[in-house]
Amino acid sequence: MLSIQNYINGKYVAPVGGQYFENYNPARGSVYSTVPDSDEHDVELAVKAAEAAFPAWSKTPVEKRSEIMLKIAQLIAENIDELADAESEDSGKPLWLCRQLDIPRAKENFHFFATAILHYATQTHATDDVAINYTLRQPIGVVGCISPWNLPLYLFTWKIAPAIAAGNCVVAKPSELTPYTAHKLGQICSDAGLPAGVLNIVHGYGYKAGAAITAHPKAKAISFTGGTKTGADIARVAAPMFKKLSLELGGKNPNIIFADCDFERMLDTTVRSSFLNQGEICLCGSRIFVERSLYDKFKTAFVERVKNLVVGDPLNKDSFMGALVSRQHMEKVLGYIDLAKEEGGTVLCGGERVYPGGHNADGWFVAPTVIEGLPYDCRTNQEEIFGPVVTLIPFDTEEEALTMANGVGYGLEHHRYGLITCTRRTVLPINWRRA
Ligand code: NDP
User: Fold this and answer.
1) What is the per-residue pLDDT across 192-227, written as a single tens digit (0 to 9) for each?
2) What is the CA radius of gyration of the chain?
3) What contacts 373, CB < 8 A, 6 or more positions away?
């Protein structure tokens, strides 16, 4: 069985405590690897390696840092087959999606920041004739990067690449549910010539390894993407230590559809923005507000399209959706469907677990689900489900649509898939807050 290891100071090493836990293939519901159950001792080793690497790396000319990072990008591209296989096996998402989205984007993350550092510009502000103030952006030392499971290598590299491009050294932890591509990234970095200690990868549980990174006094900045509650926990620890903090948290995004939209284009986008990646993206539209005069036409066409989405084997190129990431997450999503019914909602399609059979018989699949008849302020419409479940809500006026769209505790995201405005006359919803 595959044994994933920590990557510290340029080498794969076992966790100090020698403990591992099991990692599942969600589409099969079976164990396929073990993962280090790291704790503060492993984090200590990783921070020491990062600290030791920092003086040389931060003084390495940007041209050289850029060259190494471009090599990492190139190796990710050259290994796309192997990385896409690993991502799909680990997360349950379709292989075609890993090949089209996750792995190319991971490559782009290194490519983008490798070239951005070559074109650094600074701002200056003159204070009359008295002074000129200017901004320098300098590396600060060891940075902790903690990422979630939904876009594993994509989001992991999105945190790491800018940090090391700027001359920092990193201690990173991927989600314990999806460690496989992060494990492979270590070897790629070594092969690309990244000096030992610049990137250190510690696997394990958030409450243990993740919390140890957040609390470590030498980790001067924490870059985190994940759930809102975890973000609040991290902020609580990091704030009194005056760490720099970047938090990208949960979402509950609205799609707003007006009667004068380009119907076919809107329909394609809405299906995709609702169910791509099993709905497990913080940008997915999960509340669909439809102008009342279009509501019945939209509902009929949308439900028809959703019923035809193929849910099944991630290795099958016809599968639009694969498995949810874990049994626990599948149960959470099914629990929200039960809640929607209790709150008076009507399930128009989906609403249940899917059993594709064969080697996916025990996998954690859920049918794409459309629900109507719920008020905008009920729990189903207020809490993040983070799965293939959307609700339909009619509206009469723009003001009403905006009030309901903005009426959640989450920040809203403005994104191609996150919010659709299919009209000539619409003003975009205000409040582009990030959580
Ligand atoms: P979690 O918050 O559960 O976990 C995110 C990461 O934090 C994981 O690596 C986790 O480790 C770790 N972690 C958990 N507890 C702690 C802690 N106390 N201290 C430090 N680290 C900790 O999120 P999920 O993995 O469930 O990801 C889904 C969430 O991510 C959704 O809410 C989604 O909206 C959000 N997200 C936001 C994005 C954005 O750009 N705004 C993009 C993508 C996702 P482990 O998994 O090992 O417990």
Assistant:
1) 999 999 999 999 999 999 999 999 999 999 999 999
2) 23
3) 344, 345, 346
Q: What is the largest CA-CA distance in the chain?
A: 77
Residue nearest to atom 45 of ligand 1 (CA): 206
Beta bridge partners of 253: 285
Q: How many CA atoms lie within 13 A of 425 on its CB side?
A: 6
Two tokens, residue 165: 């491009």
Residue stretches of the chain with pLDDT short of 70: 411-435
How far is residue 149's CA from residue 90's CA, in Å, rounded to a whole number?
Answer: 9
Distance 281 CA to ligand 1 centre (A): 12
Identity of the amino acid at 98: C
* Residue from 157, 225, 233, 419 whose mutation best tests the ligand 1 pocket (most atoms within 8 A of CB): 225
Residue 309 burial (CB < 10 Å; 0-12/13-18/19+)?
Answer: middle
Whether 282 sits among the annotated catalytic residues: the reply is: yes
Model pLDDT, residue 413: 53
Angle at alpha carbon of residue 393, lines to 274 and 259, rounded to 5°: 85
- Whether the CB-CB separation of 195 and 93 falls below 8 Å is answered with no
Could you confirm whether 384 is annotated as catalytic?
no
262 CA from centroid of ligand 1 (Å) = 36
Q: What is the pLDDT of residues 299-356, one digit of tens each?
A: 999 999 999 999 999 999 999 999 999 999 999 999 999 999 999 999 999 999 999 9
Start-to-end CA span in the chain (Å):
39
Which domains, from first to last, does the chain contain? 2-248 (3.40.605.10), 253-422 (3.40.309.10)
Nearest CA to ligand 1 atom 33: 250
pTM: 0.92
What is d(CA 67, CA 173) in angstroms, rounded to the nearest whole number?
25
Instruction: Decide the pairing of beta strands 11-13 and 6-8.
Output: antiparallel
d(CA 384, CA 392): 15
Q: Please name the amino acid found at residue 333.
A: V
